[in-house]
TrEMBL record:
Entries under PROSITE patterns matching the protein: DOG1 (PS51806)
InterPro entries named among the record's database cross-references: Seed_Dev/Stress_Resp_Reg, TGA_domain
Record's protein name: Protein DOG1-like 4
One Pfam family it belongs to: DOG1
GO molecular function: sequence-specific DNA binding
Annotated source species: Cucurbita maxima (Pumpkin)
Domain DOG1: residue ranges: 8-226
Length: 226
């Protein structure tokens, strides 16, 4: 079944191109994990920096799209319906990174494991906080004053003052959602940086290979199901 063209075609096109590069990075990460050479660490550090910069580019573009239409970004019509089951405030849940890390890396030291378990607990708490904040904003749409204004819009009975109230309420909702989305992006970024600090280059390559591989598999499965 064909997907409807999203309202943000520029980001839709960027997303397709970005995914193609992800496929290339996956192969490089898998090759790097198996690499045996004297300059292995340097090569891995360069590749890690490239992959992280690629993810940063994605969220920079997503931020621009959100400023244009936060409602579209939160619903992400460029993703398949299966991909959207993993969607959390316009992106991935930071705790998913920790979960994939523990599955991909079996040589963590006790100190690394202890630190990462601390990070996982902190991240889950912050995720719940942001989830509640977004839910609270979304509940305002169903609040009686908003519903009454919406009904009057549908009936064409709004006066100028009520039109201003409606526009102001929508603008407040947009700004609130943008704020929560920005905080979610900051949490994603800080979680990644903390993981980078905890792991050596070989471990980080394996984690990134697991993350990119998971993302591309979910995309493939989603395309097959839709």
């Amino acid at each position: 079944m064909a997907h409807p063209q999203p309202v943000l075609p520029n980001f839709h096109n960027f997303h397709e191109s970005w995914l193609s590069t992800q496929q290339s990075f996956l192969q490089q990460l898998l090759d790097s994990a198996a690499l045996q050479s004297n300059d292995k660490e340097d090569a891995q550090l360069r590749l890690i920096a490239q992959v992280l910069a690629h993810y940063q580019q994605y969220y920079d573009e997503l931020s621009k799209a959100a400023a244009e239409d936060i409602f579209q970004v939160l619903s992400a019509p460029w993703l398949t319906s299966f991909e959207r089951t993993f969607l959390w405030i316009s992106g991935f849940k930071p705790s998913l990174l920790i979960r994939l890390l523990f599955a991909a890396v079996n040589d963590l030291t006790p100190a690394q494991s202890a630190r990462l378990n601390e990070v996982r607990a902190e991240v889950k708490w912050k995720e719940r906080e942001l989830t509640d904040a977004m839910a609270s904003l979304q509940e305002t749409i169903a609040a009686p004053p908003m519903l009454e204004l919406a009904r009057r819009v549908g009936a064409g009975r709004l006066v100028d003052r009520e039109i201003c109230e409606m526009e102001s309420a929508i603008e407040d909702l947009k700004m609130g959602m943008l704020g929560v989305a920005d905080k979610a992006d900051l949490l994603r970024g800080s979680t990644v940086m903390t993981v980078v600090e905890c792991l050596n280059s070989d471990q980080m390559v394996r984690v990134l290979a697991a993350v990119v591989g998971f993302q591309l598999r979910v995309r493939r499965w989603g395309l097959q199901r839709d």
